[in-house]
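Notebook entry, structure prediction.
Reason for the run: the old model in the group folder had no record of what sequence produced it. Starting over properly, with the input documented here first.
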Amino acid sequence: MSTPEDGMKDATLVFFGICAWDYLTSLWFEYRLITGKIRFRWQFIPYFLARYSLLTLVTSSIVDVVMDSPAGPLCSPVLWNVMLYLGFISLVFGTWNLLIRTLIIWGHHPLLAKIFSVVALAHLALALALASIERSLCIPAPPSVFSVTAFAITTAIIEFSILLLSLLGIRRASPAGESPLARLLKTQGIAYFAVVLLIQVSTIIVGLAHTDAGTRAWVGISGAALSPVLSCRLVTSTLSENGPSHESRTHRIDCFELSEGQGRNDSDGRITTCIDLDTTKDPSVC
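New structure, fully documented this time:
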């Protein structure tokens, strides 16, 4: 029977490689933000919080694994609990990416914005509460069955609801025919949910089956690593497939066009949600 320490070490090594690959292959997003090719917007905040909380968590864990010493410098109650909180909140901010993506699809619908705000804050509160329950004195053990199962069930319900709303929003925004971007959003949403649902269901089954701690460590860390990685990939891949911003001397626009029609008015079902607009220069110059 594997121990919690062995399970967490093996899982950490595997998912450090996954996170490192994801980070290095998506640095173009940070580069475009820094160079001004993409304008920073508040919708990107959950992306960076999920991305860098996960990166900090996995990096700290891998250093501890390399040191291979329970009494090493990283083995302090404060840092261990910080890593525990990072694991929970990286999952929360990964879900926030999906909420914002769905809100954009729905054209920032006021009612949905209010509902999503309540759901997002409630999800964060649950994560912080469970992390507080799991606080320990630097014992490398996975979270309890209760915490893992409760959080997995809650996250699965939220993300399934997000998927349904996304598909409905795409259908609503492009009734006359889907654009390539609309088809991309639909495919991404279904594929993401299929993978994450498999992770969440595995987590629930492993938790309820009272398997050994090593197995629970593997499943728990896989969920904590893969879900934020996949949700961040949805953000960057959508921007990449939507094409670079249209740049000229007068303005730069990067927008989501969800319908195929050209030259139709809003009553024909053509809805465009612009996510980047710069008109600081003279608009008369072309």
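Summary: Helices lie at 4-25, 27-35, 45-67, 77-105, 110-133, 145-173, 180-208, 213-241.
The old model has been moved to the deprecated folder.
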